[in-house]
Design brief:
This protein is mostly helical. The protein has a domain of about 90 residues. The protein is about 55% helix and about 0% strand. It is built from 5 helices and no strands.
């Protein structure tokens, strides 16, 4: 049955659809090599879209550089370890350099919260505790 009278303006108004803001993943800086840029994209695509704000791009670029350098040092160490005669000084220097790269990678990954340690702790902090408070045991 039809209602009598004028139709209210509010019922005639068309509901507006909220626009969806798109957030794009940050592009790799142009000063990274192709291998470093590949590492950038591997990390950026692994995390949520908004994980890396502008102020973290420098740290992420350094992280990518250190990862590639560590990879190259590992290749040099593997090559040296399979050679007939090993220059102990060169071997020690490469090991030291590899350790420095590993420390830098670990530090940067923790600061950007992309290491296992940082992400596991954050997930555990979000979970509600299942323990009852002591006063409820009574």
């Amino acid at each position: 049955m039809a209602k009598r009278g004028r139709v209210p303006a509010a019922s005639l108004a068309v509901a507006s659809i909220p626009t969806i803001e798109t957030i794009e993943r940050p592009d790799a800086p142009y000063d990274l090599t192709d291998e470093q840029a590949d590492e950038w994209w591997a990390v950026v695509n692994r995390m949520p879209v908004d994980w890396f704000p502008r102020e973290t791009h420098g740290m992420l670029a350094q992280y990518c550089r250190h990862v590639v350098r560590a990879r190259r040092l590992a290749q040099l160490l593997n090559k040296l370890e399979t050679s007939e005669d090993i220059d102990v000084k060169e071997y020690r220097d490469l090991l030291r350099s590899e350790e420095e790269q590993s420390r830098a990678i670990s530090s940067l990954a923790t600061r950007m919260r992309i290491s296992q340690q940082a992400t596991v702790r954050a997930e555990q902090a979000r979970k509600p505790t299942t323990m009852k408070p002591p006063w409820q045991d009574v």
